[in-house]
What we know:
The structure holds 2 protein chains of 2 kinds. Chain A is mostly helical. Chain A is built from 12 helices and no strands. Helices cover about 70% and strands about 0% of the residues of chain A. Chain A is elongated. Helix content of chain B is about 75%, strand content about 5%. Classes of the chains: A mainly alpha, B mainly alpha. The interface of A and B includes residues 53, 55 and 66 of A.
Amino acid sequence: MYRAKSKGHLMSQDDKDDQLESLDQVKYISQLYQASKLNPHEMPTKKIDKSILALAKERVKHDDFLAGKTNARDKKRSKWRPYLSLAASVCLVSLVFITQRQYFIDPPKTLIADNPLEPEMMRMASQSKETRSEEIQHDDTQDDEQPETIVLEPSSNLLTDRRGMVSSGKSSLADTQSVPRQEFLVKQKKQQVEKRKKRLVDPLFEIDKVAKQLQSETAKDSKHDRFVAPLTTENTAVLQTLLFDKLFQYKLDHPESVIGNEYYQLLTEQQTNQLLSINKENKPKTKKDIK
Amino acid sequence: LSVKVNKTGVAAAVPVNYLEQSDEVLMQCFVQGEFQAFEALYQRHKGALYRYFMRQIPNHSLAEDLYQEVWSKVIVSAAKYKAEAKFTTWLYTLAYNRLIDEVRHLSVVSKVIESEGQTDSEDCTEKATINPQEDEQAETLSHHRAVEALKLCLGKLPQAQKDSFLLKEEAGLSVKDIAVVLNANFEACKSRLRYAYENLRQCIALKVRDIL
Lengths: 291, 212
């Protein structure tokens, strides 16, 4: 209601005179407001005035915001800017060419993004399989292990190969960074081979371990009751059987090996005879045949 | 302006009355490195800008801070100023933008005030229509009381109307320049101004009657 009224009132005024100043109410309010300006308290303090003027003075003295100075400096800069940018571009391009010269002269046919080393290694491994491989075959039927072929690649060979490739331009300089990784892989392979060798030796260790256990058990029995015949307890019997099994298996695997007397002493007479019979026959027998 | 070449070709300093120069010329002189030009410019506009902030923000210390910041901005950005634009328009545009940045919630507050203002105005109108002799009564009041009433009423004015009113009365900007500063439509600014004057008149009439 108010809006409609006032709007209508204003519109009528607007029609008469478009100028705001001509309105009486505007004149009246304007006069009142101009009168309110005379209040001396509504002025910035001298402190504020001083700080602002000091800032302006400082800028005029020291700063280079002034139009003339900035323009002159800009002109000087803009004069040399294209030459400088051109020189910088030439330097950059030549630097890239010098560092990657081999790449530009003879670029590699294929770029392997993920791991450039692996295909190269595979190729070299297949070569060395024929010429320089060292095979360690282990036929361990008891452990159900399949015979394995381990390829040993001497690190020195790999290194020389890689460096040779770089010098001949077949490989880029970036590939030489992968040489330490290659050495690491070769080392890992070596460790694996060592582990397998140990595994081969392991039966002897186990036999020795069981024999020692058996010895200690029989010693305990004899201490406990010296009049009771040895090798009567359950533990010793079990250990005896275990030791016999291991010796028997070892003898079958290695017919040329000789079992020491210290082991025979721990076994029963029957077991000893069985082991000796393998020696006499001089040919491997299965466990089942003997039984 | 301050340097004049005589017949012998020697440049001689000529005293310049900066007070006679326009704002735009003074600004150009300042950009050229004449500190006195800025001083004259500052003396000319300091009161109006200070009051502009004081009327806009009830917190006086904040208003003073904003006042200083705007002048700092003028000093720093003097080189960017183009003489084609009116100095007061540029100055109050800086002031208005700073004000908006600082008190963004004013827009929310203004809505609340606007709604309150409308109810006040309605009351004013109703009362004004009930008492047709009120205008005459207000005119007979002492000038001082009316001025005080104006200050109070100005605080109650909706934000958009207050902006337009202060730019008109304090900065002396035309409606066109106000539209530039507020980044608003010309007609909208004109309408705001009319409402502002009308609301103030009614409010003053009420206040003065209450005082009496």
